[in-house]
Write a structure and sequence with these properties.
Length: 139
């Protein structure tokens, strides 16, 4: 290592390099501000979506629960509930009906694989009868 008085001086800074440095520094600050603004906008959008979802999802859950209570009150071994693969994908929401016709089995989703055609027909009719109370007939 050379003593400091023998060390060559650093190359002079070119004005072009200094200008580029300040330009990039300002660009970074602008991008950071833009990121903060977009983050705030995203949080606002998420809050609005959450509030809108709450306005329709809670009443829907209550309605499905009332239908489930009516379905069970018909001496049916089954249940009706609101089903969703992913709560953020609204097109995956649906009604799930689970029934059993034998005391030795557990509840199974109403499908062609678990129930016979007659069992599916009976379950569907009981579900429609449970819905009748909540549908107003125009005549």
């Amino acid at each position: 290592i050379l003593p400091h008085y023998l060390t060559p001086p650093p190359p002079p800074l070119l004005p072009k390099v200094v200008d580029e440095y300040y330009r990039r520094e300002q660009e970074i600050k602008n991008l950071e501000k833009e990121l903060d603004d977009k983050g705030s906008a995203l949080d606002t959008c998420r809050q609005n979506i959450s509030e809108a979802k709450e306005c329709w999802l809670n009443p829907l859950k209550q309605l499905v629960e009332q239908i489930n209570e009516k379905f069970r009150s018909m001496q049916c071994a089954g249940e009706v509930d609101l089903h969703s693969e992913n709560e953020e994908e609204y097109d995956t929401y649906g009604i799930c009906i689970r029934v059993k016709f034998r005391s030795s089995t557990q509840l199974h989703e109403l499908t062609a694989h678990h129930q016979s055609g007659g069992e599916r027909s009976v379950s569907t009719m009981l579900y429609l009868m449970a819905l009748q109370e909540f549908n107003r007939c125009p005549f």
